[in-house]
Amino acid sequence: MSAFIEAASPHTMNTYGRLPIALSHGQGCRVWDINGKSYLDALAGIAVNTLGHNHPELVPALQDQLGKMIHSCNYFHVPNAEVLAAKLVELSGMTNVFFCCTGLEANEAAIKLARKFGHDKGIDKPEIVVYEKAFHGRSIATLSATANEKLKTGFGPMLEGFVRVPVNDIEALKKATQGNPNVVAVFMETIQGEGGVNPMRVEYLKQVRALCDQNDWLMMIDEVQCGMGRTGKWFAHQWAGIVPDVMPLAKGLGSGVPIGAVVAGPKAAHIFQPGNHGTTFGGNPLAMRAGVETIRIMEKDGLMANAAKVGDHLRGALEKALAGVQGVKEIRGQGLMLGVELDRPCGAVWSRAAEAGLLLSVTADSVIRLVPPLIMTEAEADEVVSILAPLIKTFLAEKS
Ligand SMILES: *Cc1c(COP(=O)(O)O)cnc(C)c1O
């Protein structure tokens, strides 16, 4: 008998537009709902389940940790926090890490770092450059840094201290900041996720790095979604050969266990002093074990190389299947972070794909976003395309 899923939850707040599906369990890139229907997972819990579901090495490690200690609190050292921090330092070329629990919390810490960086230099009203189409989270500070006006409606007043510029336009950035002594940082996503899978160009990243150096600004790169191997480098900005001063991480870092981190380079690593910042759950033993094991398994199994290889394959297969289709504007992204932009809003593709047994998401109204687990195989990528391409064609044929 099928379990009935109510359209509106009676007791949880009505914050999400949900599909009438409840997922029960998963294996690799495959998940099942409570009625036994199976789905191919090209969403990974929104770029979170790096290692897919029920990973044969991650699960026993977490079970072991659960039996030892889940949470201890920051009055005490957490040995795996040092192990994970050392690893993130090694992979990023930066120097110190602050652990928290979510993406917005990592970004909130980055904003506080930038403001204190300014205050320490005698700037009373520090300003941070942010971008059109940016998404940094739902707290008041990170929402203020976010571009999408729809998300902000009803929650004003927003925080002051942000200057907004278009992506990939160095002249616009120079013009917007010219003669402004209050600018302390530039804050960007290497590939905007919620904004519609919009990559910053390599050349632009280099230009911003140079401009930040010239002006003694912090270059802060939100790698919450595009980081942790998804694009085929540990961090997406590494394709430009640059190193930021501040880098918030979260989503894929713990392969499903809530975790966030702010990685800082020498310019930002010592801004926070005891008492300046903190969080109860941040860096707890369960989350740290998840982070350590996720990275260990990624390295051992070559999952970054897999993300690059399968990502290229997926993109190639999508390009081939959608070649010449009227209404497909662009296929973009890198590695296993891909977007297919249509010429019209396509929210319906989300639910129709789920009906057809494929989990994905639609972002920025008209961009179909694929962010599968990094363990995806080429055969599974082909399966994604075999479900998705006909669905897109049907959708576009109907509405035009
Ligand atoms: C998801 C996301 C966030 C917010 O992360 P939460 O864990 O939902 O708070 C911030 N920045 C980027 C780029 C994201 O994709």
Automatic annotation (TrEMBL):
<comment type="similarity">
    <text>Belongs to the class-III pyridoxal-phosphate-dependent aminotransferase family. ArgD subfamily.</text>
</comment>
<dbReference type="GO" id="GO:0003992">
    <property type="term" value="F:N2-acetyl-L-ornithine:2-oxoglutarate 5-aminotransferase activity"/>
</dbReference>
<keyword id="KW-0032">Aminotransferase</keyword>
<dbReference type="InterPro" id="IPR005814">
    <property type="entry name" value="Aminotrans_3"/>
</dbReference>
<comment type="pathway">
    <text>Amino-acid biosynthesis; L-arginine biosynthesis; N(2)-acetyl-L-ornithine from L-glutamate: step 4/4.</text>
</comment>
<comment type="subunit">
    <text>Homodimer.</text>
</comment>
<keyword id="KW-0808">Transferase</keyword>
<keyword id="KW-0963">Cytoplasm</keyword>
<keyword id="KW-0055">Arginine biosynthesis</keyword>
<dbReference type="InterPro" id="IPR049704">
    <property type="entry name" value="Aminotrans_3_PPA_site"/>
</dbReference>
<protein>
    <recommendedName>
        <fullName>Acetylornithine aminotransferase</fullName>
        <ecNumber>2.6.1.11</ecNumber>
    </recommendedName>
</protein>
<feature type="binding site">
    <location>
        <position position="135"/>
    </location>
    <ligand>
        <name>pyridoxal 5'-phosphate</name>
    </ligand>
</feature>
<feature type="binding site">
    <location>
        <position position="138"/>
    </location>
    <ligand>
        <name>N(2)-acetyl-L-ornithine</name>
    </ligand>
</feature>
<dbReference type="GO" id="GO:0006526">
    <property type="term" value="P:L-arginine biosynthetic process"/>
</dbReference>
<keyword id="KW-0028">Amino-acid biosynthesis</keyword>
<dbReference type="GO" id="GO:0005737">
    <property type="term" value="C:cytoplasm"/>
</dbReference>
<dbReference type="InterPro" id="IPR004636">
    <property type="entry name" value="AcOrn/SuccOrn_fam"/>
</dbReference>
<keyword id="KW-0663">Pyridoxal phosphate</keyword>
<dbReference type="InterPro" id="IPR015421">
    <property type="entry name" value="PyrdxlP-dep_Trfase_major"/>
</dbReference>
<feature type="modified residue" description="N6-(pyridoxal phosphate)lysine">
    <location>
        <position position="251"/>
    </location>
</feature>
<feature type="binding site">
    <location>
        <begin position="222"/>
        <end position="225"/>
    </location>
    <ligand>
        <name>pyridoxal 5'-phosphate</name>
    </ligand>
</feature>
<feature type="binding site">
    <location>
        <position position="280"/>
    </location>
    <ligand>
        <name>pyridoxal 5'-phosphate</name>
    </ligand>
</feature>
<feature type="binding site">
    <location>
        <position position="279"/>
    </location>
    <ligand>
        <name>N(2)-acetyl-L-ornithine</name>
    </ligand>
</feature>
<dbReference type="InterPro" id="IPR015424">
    <property type="entry name" value="PyrdxlP-dep_Trfase"/>
</dbReference>
<dbReference type="Pfam" id="PF00202">
    <property type="entry name" value="Aminotran_3"/>
</dbReference>
<dbReference type="InterPro" id="IPR015422">
    <property type="entry name" value="PyrdxlP-dep_Trfase_small"/>
</dbReference>
<dbReference type="GO" id="GO:0042802">
    <property type="term" value="F:identical protein binding"/>
</dbReference>
<dbReference type="GO" id="GO:0045303">
    <property type="term" value="F:diaminobutyrate-2-oxoglutarate transaminase activity"/>
</dbReference>
<dbReference type="GO" id="GO:0030170">
    <property type="term" value="F:pyridoxal phosphate binding"/>
</dbReference>
<dbReference type="InterPro" id="IPR050103">
    <property type="entry name" value="Class-III_PLP-dep_AT"/>
</dbReference>
<comment type="pathway">
    <text>Amine and polyamine biosynthesis; ectoine biosynthesis; L-ectoine from L-aspartate 4-semialdehyde: step 1/3.</text>
</comment>
